[in-house]
Each structure stands twice: as structure tokens, then as C-alpha cells.
Design a protein that fits this description.
heterodimer; A: about 325 residues; mainly alpha; 12 helices; about 0% strand; B: about 325 residues; 13 helices; about 75% helix; globular
Amino acid sequence: MDATEVSVKRPTVSPFRASLTVAVKRVKSVWVQIYHSRSAMAGLVLLLFFAALAVAAPLLAHYPPLQAVPSSQCSTFTPPLTAYQLPCSQYPLGTNAASDDIYSQVIWGSQVSLIVGILSAIVASVVGTAVGLVSGYVGGWIDEVLMRFNDVILSIPWLVLMIVVAAKVGVVDLTGLVLVIGLTGWSVTARVIRSQVLSIKERMFVERAKMIGTPSWRILMRHIFPNAFPLIFANTILTVAVSILSEAVLSFLGLRPTSTVSWGRIISEAIDAQAVLNGNALWLIVPGLCIVFLVFGFYLFGYALDEILNPRLRRR
Amino acid sequence: MRRVLRIVTRRVINAVVTIFGILCFNYVLIHLMPGNPEANLAPHNPQYAGFLQDNIRTFGLDKPQWQQFLIYLQNTFTFNWGISYFYKSPVADKIIPALAWTLLLVGTSTIITIVIGMVIGSYAAVRRGKSFDFISTGVGIFLYGMPIFWLGLMLQLAFAKGSIFQQYFSWWPTFPLGGRIDEDPSFPPWAWDWTHISSVLTHLFLPALTLSLGTLAGVSLVMRSSLIDVMTEDFVLTAKAKGLSDRQVLRRHIFPSGLPPMVSLIALDLAFVVGGAYQVEWVFNYKGIGWLTIDAIDHLDFPMLQFIVVIGGVAIVLGNLISDFILLWLDPRIKIT
């Protein structure tokens, strides 16, 4: 008996197209959940506001961050001085010791915070993920050594660790700052990723892959990493918040590049100039509020994203 | 019992290894700092001539590297910490009193934080999805994301003499903005009487408040989510079905299983609290360990740095170890991790 060939016209889809479709679908469903989460949207709005501020800084700022400005009509000094002017229509936040316009500095500062925060979080995540993956998957004495080292780093107060490393590396430019914050901030990520890897490792598909003789690195890259990725992503967003705070503290304590102006530096200069006693409390308050709301935005968005992407944590 | 003993041994060994690691790491860090370590520890500056020979002998700077390291380890445990260049006095004499002040600050604020955080967290969990939950979570995250040094500066602004609030409300209190105790020369020397204790307490108020506010969400959010996790368990439903009141269910069934994870998470938060304490001490000029550390880094006072960095690390390791024991006592089923 001849088997009759039934030819069904199936649309052939390349594997690349197929995986792309799946990815797009996933992103869409995550977006729908973000859209319906009040806190995620609130965080996103804050982030977009600061991103817009950073992008539009050349338009919004009246002066470059480190350029002495002319004396204004509303200077209270006679003869008119350019330094330490109080807030007035021309300089909404006044001027500092070097006669720079503080309002413009605050606007430019958004760029520094975002760039340093995001880049150092990426550095921290890459290192932390690598350590977490290896430690969790390989196990044995490598795991033991890495985790004990991690304990050591976690136990030295992060501020001190950062300051000592900063003093060593010398934060002459933003790259130095990013490296200091990134290379001291990966321990928590490593620990989180490791515990996730330990649980993924026990799942059936990993067992199956092992059984058919897939090499370890391939299992790690094709099976474990993609499954841990949502966690890594949400964790990176939260790390950005922490990195922005670290940058602020370092700048406040004077460990900062001289050629860039960040919010932490503005606050530190306000303290040096005794801004409050001299009647310019805004000099201290406004850059602080900027840090607070930017970090708040990252935290809100990060926590909400964590709940959405990592269903294990999702409220039942 | 043997299982418990095994876990305890393992934890203690881990703690010892970690402390040893901190010592090694710190030694390496200090030796990586700018300049030549020998010159750093005993600078050839006529100003310090008196201490030079002394520190070379104490730290064994004329011996090879590995011997220096062993001497460093030995010195650490015998409190033979050398002489600080900046203060021109033995390092141990500066660090140990400072440690007491820091413990006062961190201890007070941690207790306040844990009590208030647990109350807020459990109330938010009970009223989950209601406005209290929403507001307390939002405010908590907001405060958690605040740079602690800036929060301190803002509180200084609010409680200084002649603050904006004082201009509108005559009853608005003021607090000292810095220091640990009244440092007026006319102030009598220390004695255990009310004048001194009240001076210490008023000086403690703002730093402790800053640290508590800044770390409150670390406790309240964890408490909330840990209780909510328990609330979905079947035994809670059973308890409710038995006809127990909500209060009884909460106290007898939810709390006992919701608390253990809290302990370990609070311990994990400890490093964050200590980091915050350093900033608070700096802003409020509160001369504890944190202030001394940042000060020592500023002056590159190496003999000081060698040991003071270790103190914070050891404190955190011990805190974690104690929390592990509490956890073991609360929940003997716990696994070794």
C-alpha cells in the first residue's frame, strides 16, 4: 500500500525569525504588565524626566558648568560681585565660589549621574553575573573560594572599600569613577545570581542537556544564562540606583574628578561655602532633591520590574 | 543536637575564615595605596622623627614582606597597633573609645529601626493593597533611596536654631548639630549624672534619627513581604476556618513563621547600616569609628587605616554570626548554606 503524500503547504519560518517573534511577544507582555503597574509607571515617568533633562541639558542650561558668569542686576553686593550671588531671576539658584551658575550645574549634573550610575551598574552586573554563574554552576572548591572572597568584600563596609579603592585608583576622570563604583559593587549581584543558578541547575532541561552530552559552557550560556537573565536585568536596574548613591557620596567626600560637576559635588561645595548661613539654602536642597528623585525612580521601576520578571517573587 | 553542633561549627569556621580574609585583604589594600608602604607607615618627616623608630620596630618594616604580614597579624590580636601620625598617640587609644560611641549610635538606631520597621511592615501586610500599605511602601522606598549624608544635612537644617519651622511654630525644638557631647570647656568632666546623660542624648538624637529614617525601609519592606508570603500558606486558611480572630491568626500563626527570614535579612542589611553610620558620623561631626576612618583616609594616616578598616568588617561578620545563631534558635530546621 502506497502511502499517499499529503502535501500541506506549511509556511517555513527560519529559526531566527521564530525566536525573534517569541522575544517580541515576551517584551510586549512585560510591557503590558509594566503599563498596569502604578509604581512601575511612576518610576518610568521620573526616569524619563531625568533622561530628558540630561539630553536637553545643552538647551536648558544657560552656561557651561564650569564658567564664571557676569554679575547680575540683582547682586546684593556693592560693588557687584560675581561669586556667592543669591538666587534671583538671572541665576535661579545663585552662583558659587568660582562664580559658576548653580542652576546650570544642576542641569549638567543629571548627565554625570546617569552616565556614571548606568555604566558602573553594567560593570558591576557583568562581573557579578560572571562570578555568580561560575560559582553556582561549577560548585566545589571554586564556589567555596569565590564565596568566601565575596563574604570578605561584603563585610568590609562598602563606603570604606570604595574610598580606599578610589584613593588608590585616583578618580581623575569619569572612567576611574565608574571602575571604582563598578568593581566594588558586584558582590550582592554575585550572591543573588548564584542562588538563582543553583535552583535552575536542578531543573529537568539542564539534566536532559547534560544527558545528551552538551558541554558545560554551552549549558551555561544557552540554558542557564537565558533563564537567569530577567533576574539579572531587574537587579541591574536596582544596582543603578545604588551606584548613583555611591557616586554622590564619593563626590560629597571629595573623591571626584575636577573637570566634571555632579550633584554630590554641588552639595559638598554648598557645605564648604556655608550656603545655609549665607541665605542660599536652595544651593543645598535642589541638587539633593535631584538625587533623591532619580534614585526613587530607579528603585520604583526596579522593584516593580523585579516582581513582573521574576514570577517566583510575584504576589500570589 | 549533633546537627546543630555541626552547623554552629561550620558557621564559626566561616566567620573566622572571613575575618582572616578581611585582614589579608586590608593588608593588601593598604600596601596598594599610593606611595611606598614602608615610607607611608613611617614617613621620614622631621615632624614625626620621634615615632619613626618606634613604628619601624612595631610593624617590622625592616623585615621581608611575609614577616611583616605575620607581624601585622600578631599586632592585630595583641592590640599593639602602633602610633598614629596625625594624632601622635597610640592608635588603640583612639579607636577603642570611638568604637564605644559608634556602638551607642548604631545600637540605638538599629533598635528603633527594627521596632518601628516591624510595626509598620506588619500593619502594611495586614492592610495589603489599602492606602496605608501604598503610602508606607512609597515613603519607605523614598527614604531608602535618599543619600544618608543629605538626609542628615536636611535634618540639621530643620532643627537648627532659627530654622524655618521655628519661625512659624514657637514650640519647634532645636538640637545640637554636631559632636557627641557638650564640648564647652566650662562643661564639667564626665560623670554619671543627668547633665551629662541628657547632653549625650540630645547630641545623639539627630544622628540616630537620620540613620533610622534612612534604613527603616530595609526592615519594613522585608517584614511586609515576608508576612505576605506566609499569609498565602494553607495553615493560615485553616486557622481562619477554625474561627480564630484575625489578631490571633497573626500572633500565633503568621508571626512565628514570618520572623525567621527577617532575622537573616536584617543581618544582611547590617553592612548598609554601617555604611550609613559612616556618613552620619561625618556629617554630624560625631567622632566615632566612621568619622575617624574618613579622617584617617583624608590624612593618609596609615597606622590608623591598617586597623580601623578591619573593625567595621569584623563588626559585620560578628553581627551576621549572631543572627545565624538567633535564626538557628528560632527555627532549628534551617539548612546549611
